[in-house]
Amino acid sequence: MSCRCALALTTVSLAAVSIASAVCQDERPPNNVVILADDLGLRDLQLYGGWIETPRIERMAREGLTFTDFHANSSVCSPTRTAFLTGRYQQRAGIVDVIVGSREPDQGILPTTKTLPRVFKDGGYATALFGKWHCGFHDRFNPIHHGFDEFVGLLNGGGDYHRHGAWRNGLEQQDVEGYSTDVITDLGVDFIERHREQPFLLYLAHQTPHNPYQTRADTPATRAKDWKQNRVGEENRPRYVEMVQDLDRSVGRILDTLTEASLAEDTLVFFWSDNGDVQMSPVEGPHRGRKFSHYEAGHRVPAVAWWPDRIEADTTSDALLAGFDLLPTFTALAGLSDHDPADLDGESFAEHLLGRAAAVRERDLFFGYEPKLGTAMRRGQWKMILKEGGAQLYDLAADPREATDVLAEEPETAAAMRAAIEDFKATVTRGS
Q1: Residue 374 maps to which CATH number?
Q2: Residue 189's pLDDT is what?
Q3: Does the pLDDT value for residue 8 go beyond 50?
Q4: Who's near 217: CB < 8 A, 6+ residues apart?
Q5: Who's near 377: CB < 8 A, 6+ residues apart?
Q6: Is 0.70 surpassed by the pTM of this model?
Q7: Among 9-13, 150-154, 387-391, where is mean pLDDT lowest?
């Protein structure tokens, strides 16, 4: 298939041109598969020293690149997904907290917002989202309005793994039979097989392992009436393990499908999570915090990139990156950078991904969750959390668990970061 990457190279940087030309070389532009877990933390996976074996994700790591300092843009679902899809801080879309279904009719990514699927659709890609949307519950925010050719899944933040009466197929409400993880995976496999001859963007947004903690065996007919399905603890811990391992098998099925379709060398697969875990692990992890926290475990997440013969196998990156960096990275690799949304906050790490750059540019990263948690900021080794005027400062190089506040010992660093946070809060607003 002839390369179409040259179509979008008129105004991009020389670095982007070199990436696109090196990737294409008279080939089809690369497919992109994004597999997003829900509430999966670093401490959950054995890959990061955790407690659950995930051999397929570990296979991705052996054959690809593992990130150790990759972050969701928030410690909760909706803001992270918004940042990923727009390439910009979620505050610019006015989404800083979880969108709670029909109770928030004005919350969602506006259809006029330029998004990742829109850029790829306009660039000739087939696009699909299967699974969880959570970027606007009402019809006007539906993924179909954002450049997805196909959407089957749930609009809100969670739901029963066996009952799907509120799911959508496009704009139509439609019940879908099956266990959620299997349904999402089956749809992804089918989409890949139907688009062997056309470049595609596939976004698999799993519910797993978000509550309720239901396995295949926990059908409506077999559930105990007094079972606390959302409780974090010993009762549901075995279920949690099984759910994560189901997700792992799903990852394996996608990799196998790409390999069997002779598409592996044409496809970048990126696996990550939308926020930190809920502390289901029986052992303490390397970082402090959890979902709904500005400490590192709230937003530092597992992330693995797989692209045979393009990404060097069995490599690790400690680059400070975040979910909103994926949009410019994917478009750079596809030669679509000149169609990026204006004023991106995310930055491409395509050169780093392909092993052609030793380091990613140093920059500040912000994790705003106002007013509940305040605002957090990373500046290299330094981490500040600022809420209602009160501040905490940590040196992550010496203290990765954020156990010792060094605010008093580092007044100049603290003052500079506090000023940067206040400027961020003042300038990154809805519509900006």
Answers
A1: 3.30.1120.10
A2: 98
A3: no
A4: none
A5: 364, 365, 366, 367, 383, 384, 385, 386, 417, 420, 421, 424
A6: yes
A7: 9-13
Same domain, 336 and 373: no
Mean pLDDT of 262-266: 97
Q: Are 296 and 396 in contact (CB under 8 A)?
A: yes
Spatial CA neighbour of 127 closest among 336, 296, 402? 336
| Within a domain: 432 | no
Query: Which tokens is 155 given?
Result: 């609009």
Q: Could you give the C-alpha distances from 147 to 205, 265, 266, in angstroms and in order?
A: 16, 25, 22
Q: Which tokens go with 426? A: 């003042």
Residue 250: how many CB atoms within 10 A of its CB? 23
pLDDT at 367 over 90: yes
Q: Do 358 and 416 fall into the same domain?
A: no
The mean pLDDT of the chain is: 93
| pLDDT more than 70, % of the chain | 94
Residue 108 phi, psi dihedral angles, 5° rounding = 160, 165
Mean pLDDT along residues 236-240: 98
Task: Specify the number of domains making up the chain.
Answer: 2
Alpha carbon of residue 39 to chain centroid: 11
Dihedral sign (CA 137, 139, 145, 149):
positive
Query: Is the separation of the CB atoms in 104 and 301 below 8 Å?
Result: no
